[in-house]
Design a protein that fits this description.
By secondary structure, this protein is mainly α. Helix content is 88%, strand content 0%. The chain is built from five helices and no strands. It has helices spanning 3-28, 34-63, 68-117, 125-143, 145-173. The chain is elongated, with a radius of gyration of 23 Å. The mean pLDDT is 81.
Length: 175
């Protein structure tokens, strides 16, 4: 196995460990784990950036040329620092933005159902119900964003665990 292949497998194992650990922490306690996960993701990005910069230094010593690793490494380190400052704020904005989108879509669905009624002489009760449900869900997202964040966060954690298992299976298949 060459140095590129070895490095690729090291990145893959780092990613598998990160995905599984993050998913497990989130699934066990989604409410309390948000701060820890922000630090964990930031640390992961920082370590990934350092590894990419080290790869670029090795490549430069061998081939006297820079690669995209330097850009990825510096970008990853900058992203890790930015993540520390804005991640929690963005997590709280997501349900509110989704709630607003759902309300507008519900209103638009209701309006479209009424406009389509002039072409078909049937009352679209299911469309009205669907519109009402979308508006109600949007209001829940806006009025109770923390519980929605916790639910999505838990689902995200479960997805990360599943993704880590698939990565592990792919590592075994594509040795």
């Amino acid at each position: 196995m060459g140095p590129f292949s070895t490095q690729f497998h090291l990145y893959r194992w780092l990613r598998i460990l990160f995905l599984f650990a993050t998913g497990l922490i989130i699934v066990i306690n989604p409410t309390e784990s948000l701060d820890f996960i922000v630090y964990f993701v930031s640390t992961y990005l920082f370590i990934f950036g350092l590894i990419a910069i080290a790869d670029n230094i090795k490549l430069y010593k061998i081939a006297k040329t820079d690669s995209i690793s330097l850009t990825l490494g510096v970008g990853s380190i900058i992203l890790s620092i930015v993540t520390l400052f804005i991640a929690k704020f963005l997590m709280l904005l997501i349900p509110v933005i989704l709630g607003i989108i759902l309300i507008f879509n519900g209103i638009n669905q209701f309006r479209d159902s009424n406009e389509d009624r002039q072409f078909v002489n049937v009352t679209p009760w299911l469309d009205y119900l669907y519109s009402l449900l979308m508006i109600a869900l949007g209001l829940i997202f806006i009025l109770n964003p923390m519980n929605i964040v916790n639910l999505f966060f838990w689902l995200f954690g479960a997805g990360l665990i599943i993704l880590s298992v698939f990565e592990l299976i792919n590592t075994r298949i594509y040795k």
